[in-house]
What we know:
- By secondary structure, the chain is of the alpha/beta class.
- The chain has a single domain (33-333), classed as Rossmann fold.
- The chain is built from 15 helices and nine strands.
- The protein has a four-stranded parallel beta sheet, sandwiched between helices. A three-stranded antiparallel beta sheet has the order 1-2-3. Strands 8-9 form a two-stranded antiparallel sheet.
- Helix 1 packs across helix 2.
- The radius of gyration is 21 Å and the shape is globular.
- Residues 1-9 have low confidence and may be disordered.
- The site of adenosine-3'-5'-diphosphate (A3P) has 20 residues, from helix 3, helix 5 and helix 12.
Amino acid sequence: MLSSPSLPTTLESKEDAEHNKICQDYNHMITTLPKGNGWRVQHLYNYNGFWLDSSTLKTNILLNTYFKPQPSDIFLASFMKTGTTWFKALMFSTINRHNYTFSNHYLHHQSPQSTFPMIDSEDYPVNDFTHLPTPRLFATHFSPTLLPPCMTSCKFVYVCRDPKDVLISKWIYLSKLRSKDLAPLSLDEAFELFCNGISEYGPYWDHVLSYWKDSLVCPDKILFVTYEDMKKQPLVELRKLATFMGKGFTLEEVERGVVEEIVRLFSFENLSGLEVNRRGVEKFGKLVEVERREFFRKGEIGDWRNYLSEEMKDRIDGVFDEKLKGSGLVRSSRDGD
Ligand code: A3P
């Protein structure tokens, strides 16, 4: 007996048609965008003011079409190399502190990357995240202007780091991932590109500024934290983070040393020493594979001193001071100075 066409087939083909149309529009649009030099791949494209590689740009368009945020979602937003891996571990373990013991924690056996999805490299619309427990946690490197407007109802933790350390960390990291078909990117070239705003997800100053301004307008929705503060006063910062996420530590937990325990477990020394973070690879989308140990290099404030001359330091500080002038975000509060 012949069966009549089922509803799922009709829906599937409608979705396929929509998906194909988006891909066609993307293929056309990318030819019209300004191009700059990439650090990992040959080209970056300037899309609504930010530099993205072609596959991240495509994912951004699919994300804006398919991703369905919920008001209870909490996002870790960060520029590349500002401590995303570390903050993932801190946020996940704080939210889930009643589900694991510290002597046999999930993060003893699994990488921080596996704790929650990075929405910039997910497969849309295949992944819809409806199975995740509330509050759902997500990470992103996109600036708020590249995210669906309805995400303003969600909470964001934004991590900022001294641009000089970001530059060095990013240059070393992306040089290792750089396509073998391309000539190596020298530090001088990377420095020039960075000071001109051209690097994956850059300009860094516009990234920082967009979250900073939003955090001033909606402090209950955006928590602006710095890598340096988390290094210098982790107990204070972690308590702030927990309260912001709606999971503040109780007095009893504080007295029992729970905050200290989380800080200690996920310190650079502990996280980087775990077997799970020393071996194996992490996949981002279909194209990018990164060895887990690459997420743990030195974990220090001020390593830029080993790479940048005084002149380079003055130039990069000057660029950022100028760009952030009048925003209220001053160097001593945002950098490791
Ligand atoms: P360095 O390259 O300066 O050492 P991201 O996770 O956003 O890619 O950031 C990576 C940076 O965070 C690297 O900086 C890495 O060493 C550092 N890092 C990773 N885990 C850390 C931790 N537990 N504490 C402090 N820094 C950490």
